């Protein structure tokens, strides 16, 4: 409860959340996430890697956004051609999905949200309330 109370003042300036590209409810844990857990409100995003794109799946792995950016930066300074290639694929994924919503993510979001459920949708550093209706 104390952790959640410490986060509340941040609501006026913004919360630090960091998506993982593996599921619509997958986020790197940050102290700010506790507010959603405490209120039992699901936090969603739609920025997913399509599992059929094996090269991208391999390059992105279970990285969060921040981890993936670090991987891309370090790959540019690397001499290992495999790591350089993975970094390029990861960078192309971020460039191609700069809207932070993919078709696969939208399909998964539709499947994961429950009918009538109040949730929060995170996209482009903004939070929106959402309710699934039909």
From TrEMBL:
Coiled-coil ranges from the UniProt annotation: none
Keywords associated with the record: Hydrolase, Protease, Thiol protease, Ubl conjugation pathway
Catalytic reaction(s) noted: Thiol-dependent hydrolysis of ester, thioester, amide, peptide and isopeptide bonds formed by the C-terminal Gly of ubiquitin (a 76-residue protein attached to proteins as an intracellular targeting signal)
Family the entry assigns: Belongs to the MINDY deubiquitinase family. FAM63 subfamily.
GO terms, molecular function: cysteine-type carboxypeptidase activity; cysteine-type deubiquitinase activity; histone deubiquitinase activity; K48-linked deubiquitinase activity; K48-linked polyubiquitin modification-dependent protein binding
Domain of life: Eukaryota
Domain called MINDY deubiquitinase: residue spans: 1-134
GO terms, biological process: protein K48-linked deubiquitination; proteolysis
PANTHER family per the UniProt record, alphabetical: NF-E2 INDUCIBLE PROTEIN, UBIQUITIN CARBOXYL-TERMINAL HYDROLASE MINDY-1
Catalytic activity, EC: 3.4.19.12
Organism: Chiloscyllium punctatum (Brownbanded bambooshark)
A single Gene Ontology CC term: cytosol
Stretches that traverse the bilayer: none
Protein name: Ubiquitin carboxyl-terminal hydrolase
One protein family per Pfam: MINDY_DUB
Broad class of enzyme this protein falls into: hydrolase
């Amino acid at each position: 409860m104390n952790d959640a109370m410490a986060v509340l003042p941040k609501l006026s300036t913004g919360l630090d959340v960091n998506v993982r590209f593996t599921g619509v409810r997958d986020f790197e844990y940050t102290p700010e996430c506790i507010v959603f857990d405490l209120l039992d409100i699901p936090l969603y995003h739609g920025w997913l890697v399509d599992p059929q794109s094996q090269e991208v799946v391999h390059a992105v792995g279970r990285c969060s956004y921040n981890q993936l950016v670090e991987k891309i930066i370090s790959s540019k300074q690397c001499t290992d051609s495999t790591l350089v290639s993975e970094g390029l694929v990861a960078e192309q994924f971020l460039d191609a999905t700069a809207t932070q919503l993919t078709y696969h993510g939208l399909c998964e979001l539709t499947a994961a949200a429950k009918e009538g459920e109040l949730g929060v949708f995170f996209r482009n550093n903004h939070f929106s309330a959402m309710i699934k209706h039909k």
